[in-house]
Structures are given as structure tokens and as C-alpha cells.
Design a protein that fits this description.
By secondary structure, this protein is an alpha/beta fold. The chain has a single domain, classed as P-loop containing nucleotide triphosphate hydrolases (Rossmann fold). The protein has six helices and ten strands. A five-stranded mixed β-sheet has the order 1-3-2-5-6. Strands 7-8-9-4-10 form a five-stranded parallel β-sheet, with helices on both faces.
Amino acid sequence: MPEATPTNTSTAVVEANALTFSYGTREVVNIEHFQLAAGESIAVIGPSGCGKTTFLHMLAGLLKPTSGRIHLLGSDITAMSDTELDHFRGQQVGMVFQRLLLMPALNVRQNVELAQQLARKPRDKARIDALLKQLSLVDFAQHKPRMLSQGQAQRVAIARALVHNPALVLADEPTSALDDEQAVQALTLLKETATSAGAALLVVTHDQRVRGQLDRELEMGLPT
């Protein structure tokens, strides 16, 4: 059973206990205890099929665990209704999905701004401008997703995940489509932004370039 405990448990953003998830009779996640502190970052690593993305989706409230409890900022998200969870996630969680899920009808700036709207926060043009500049996206601000390379689209997804200053940032393979320079840039921005905002950062990855770049690692193995 993987176990991961932060260096400072007094400021835990995420705490999960006796957490399992099964597809039918096949158990893919079994984590006895997990905590992630404010300002801390962790890489969840392991081979394909070991349950990394399933674990991330449970922490985001997109999947209900088969058993166990997940507390985010002290609130038990496993006990929330779908409506409560949607509202809570929109305000407190920023996500970089593996499939990105950018809105095709919106341009880059609008896709990033949408996260602020969904979080019910005031439009912050300066925040958007800063992220677009940091991620080398200024020249593409008016482009629709179909006009972007995969790497550019991935950087838009990272900006969208960070723009509303969430308490928890979850990134599923955020460097997979990036070259070495862009991967360092994106990972550095994710970590520095999360740290400066006091947010917790969890990155699911099999990218060896990520190893050693975050505060600690949780290694998951294939289910037996």
C-alpha cells in the first residue's frame, strides 16, 4: 500500500485515508494514507495502468472512491452532492487534463478567462496577461485551439489551471507533448506558481524529466 505523508501535516490541503478504487473486481488504487501540504509538490509516478490517473480523478472529485475518505481544505468531498462538488472544485481545484479539453469555440485568452468565470471570481486581466507571457502564449492569444500545436495547447491548459489561484493544482501528464525547454518552463511555472500561492501541486507522470523536480514522489505499482 503506497503511503505518502508531507513534511508539514499542520497545513494539509489534501488528506486521504483508506482510499481504494475498483473497476468491478479489479482493484486499481489502494492507498492507506496520503497527505499533501500547502505549498508542497509531489510527483505520482508509475507504469501505465497502475491507477495514477484514477487517483488524480478521485482527488478532484471526478470519481467516487470505492472506499475511504478524501478531505480537501478540511471538507469531506466524498460526502458532497454533485452540485456542491462542482462548485467547490471550480473554486479550489485547477486541473491540467491529459486530453486538455480546451473549448474549441473560444480563443486562447477566452479559454484561460473561462476558469476565472467558473470559479466565480472577478476577471483579472493582469493575471491572464502574466500567465500568457510566462508561457510564451502572447502571440497566440486570439488563436482558436485548432490553430495551436499540441505543445501550445498544453501550455494553454496549464495557464487555465493556474489563473484562478486554486488551493490544489492537479496535472495529468502536463509535459508529455512538450520539448525539453518547454517541459522545464511549464513544470517550473506550475511549481513556482503553486508555491507562491500556497497551493498544493500534484503531478501524475511517467515522464522521466519530471523526476527529482518536485518536493517528493509517490510511486504506484501495477495492481496484483
